Amino acid sequence: MLTRHLRADDAAHWPELRLDLAGATLVDFDAAGCTLVDANFTEAVFTGTTTFAGATARGRLLLDAATFGDVVFEGLAADGEVILDDVRVGGGASFDGGALPGGLACRRASFAGPTSFRRVTFGQPTSFDATRFEDAATFREAVFDGALSMEHTEFGRSANFHSVRFTNMALFRWTVFGAEALFDRARFLDAANFGRARFHSMASFRDTQFSRPPQVEQARAVADPGHRWPAGTTVDRLDDEWLLLVDR
Predict the structure, then answer these.
(1) What radius of gyration, in Å, describes the C-alpha atoms of the chain?
(2) Contacts of 170 (CB under 8 A, 6+ apart)
(3) How far apart, in whole angstroms, are the C-alpha atoms of residue 142 and residue 122?
(4) 79, 87, 101, 189: which is deepest, by most CB within 10 A?
(5) Residue 2: CB partners within 8 Å, gap ≥ 6?
(6) Strand partners, 236
């Protein structure tokens, strides 16, 4: 019943309603197509399947420290900052096709299932610092118009950045790639830093474009014949199992 009042095409619509459900328990919460104004879901517990598909968020969307089962944010349009710090997602999560010009804060979060940010447009600075993706994570064809920070981020399975455009600085320092790290056909239009990252499987930068040489100082990678490093990368062998990348 509540979400009827959040849909502009419903006769029961309450315009400018500011939703405060901090700490609430919500079962199969369906906000698809809703307009959310300064909505606060801090520490809320979402059980079942939650959807914000096609929703419009005006002002900040606060979801910090919330807990989800499966969650869908596909097509979410948010003009303010979206806060997902310390979020825990026990199932799958999809943000495909979203528009986040106000930026995204997703620090220290945990995603247990497959997670997708395909074709998402990120505006203001975006941070995934210290977040863990336990299953496959894809950002394929996403656009980062603001700076990106993924420092101390952990990918348990494949990390896919195929055809992503990084317009601003992109930081992957101390990032742990537990499986394939795929940056094929990505474009870095500003600085890229992979210093002290760890590649536990194949890393591929096939046909990747850099506006300047990426920084890789002290990054390490398992010895894998499938690696495709950026042109000019200096790779030294540490031992039978590990390689060391150094800046020229």
Answers:
(1) 19
(2) 144, 147, 148, 150, 188, 190, 191, 192, 193
(3) 8
(4) 87
(5) none
(6) 244
Alpha-carbon gap, residue 27 to 1, rounded angstroms = 13
C-alpha neighbours within 13 Å on the C-beta side of residue 248: 8
pLDDT in tens, 8-44: 554 444 455 678 999 999 999 999 998 899 999 999 9
Nearest-angstrom CA–CA distance, 215 and 191: 8
CB 220 within 8 A of CB 198: yes
CA dist., res. 219 & res. 1, Å (int): 52
What topology is assigned to 2-188 in CATH? Pectate Lyase C-like (2.160.20)
On whether the CB atoms of residues 120 and 142 are closer than 8 A, the answer is: yes
To the question of pTM greater than 0.90 for the whole model, the response is: yes
Cite the DSSP H helix spans in 92-180: none
